[in-house]
Structure formats: C-alpha cells, structure tokens
Specification:
By secondary structure, this protein is α+β, with helices and mostly antiparallel strands. 31% of the residues lie in helices and 38% in strands. The chain has 2 domains: 113 residues, Roll (PH-domain like); 50 residues, no CATH class. It has a 7-stranded antiparallel sheet. The protein is elongated.
Length: 181
C-alpha cells in the first residue's frame, strides 16, 4: 500500500502517473537509486520505483524533462533482494542489463519487495541453460575473458549461479575439457 502521508513520495508518484499505462493498477511505490550496468558502463540515477500489476517503472524528473523506464515483470530475472547498511537493495537483470535498486528508504519497502517477489520470474539454479549463459555473455561483449569470468563469479557470490555451473562455463570459455560434454 502506498504511504499517502509521505508527501515527497506522493508528489513523485503524481509526476509519474501520466507516464504509466492507464490500464495498469499501481500497487507499491518507493524512492531509491537506480544503478544500471551494461557492457562495463554504470549509470546511477535517483527517482521513484513504481510496482504495478504488469510492470516495474522507474521515473525521475529533472530540470529539462523527465525519464521513464519500464521493466516488464516477465523480462526480470536473477533477482536478489536484501538489506544493506545504506538501505534495502534489489538486484535483477532486464533486457541483458544488470539493474540495482539501492538506498530504498522511503515508502512501503516491505510491500514493494513482496510485490516484486510475487510478480517476477525466478529461475532456479538447476534450471539454468546454455541460453542463459549466452545472454550473460552477450551482456559482457567487448570485455576480456578475465573480466567476463569475474562478472560470472559475481553471480556465484550472489547465489544466482552455482559454483559447479561457474566451473563448467569457465572450462568452456577457456577451451578446457568439460565433464558435461
């Protein structure tokens, strides 16, 4: 439920409302920071995150305009939801881009996180396929093998990829014989 007493949150939600599909029902909204990483480039922006029945929206207004990004739930995978010293944090991939929502301190944080868990597609480690690794490789295009393996190791540390799967991909990437071959 949206915290209607939070004037800053309500103001940002009103600014974003015209950019949200009118057929969608808004469930939750929180203020936080979006960090997107694609092919080694990281962009950080502050704004409002809005969870509807169909999409996750990020909206920010700045001096000369606005920005609205839409993340359909069916395209969100590999999520990690947790709490850090600087606030709550959510990590997911959408359209081959790593997205980190951090410094979530305003709004119904618990409700927002529960809504994302309910709406998003969660892939179990044992269901990861060769196509999944190809998507990760596409995201890492242009990086050296070492940088690619470091990025993949980060997925192991986030419990998105198992150590065994990492070892198999590492062997394949380095051209070494694989047990699964």
């Amino acid at each position: 439920m949206i915290d209607k007493k939070n004037k800053k949150l309500v103001n940002k939600l009103m600014q974003a409302d015209p950019h949200i599909n009118p057929t969608e029902k808004i469930y939750e909204a929180v203020l936080g920071t979006l960090q997107a990483t694609l092919i080694g480039t990281t962009i950080i922006k502050k704004g409002i995150f809005i969870a509807t029945d169909q999409n996750l929206y990020f909206f920010r207004k700045y001096f000369s305009g606005y920005e609205c990004e839409v993340f359909p739930y069916e395209e969100i995978t590999f999520k990690d939801i947790g709490n850090r010293l600087s606030g709550h944090r959510i990590i997911f991939y959408a359209n081959h881009t790593k997205i980190v929502i951090s410094q979530i301190k305003s709004g119904d944080i618990k409700g927002f996180m529960e809504r994302l868990e309910k709406q998003t597609v969660t892939e179990a480690n044992e269901n990861l396929t060769e196509n999944t690794y190809e998507l990760i490789l596409d995201e890492e295009k242009g990086k050296s093998i070492v940088e690619y393996l470091k990025a993949l190791k980060e997925l192991v540390e986030m419990d998105i990829v198992t150590q065994e799967d990492f070892n198999e991909v590492k062997k394949k990437t380095l051209g070494l014989p694989s047990k699964k071959a």
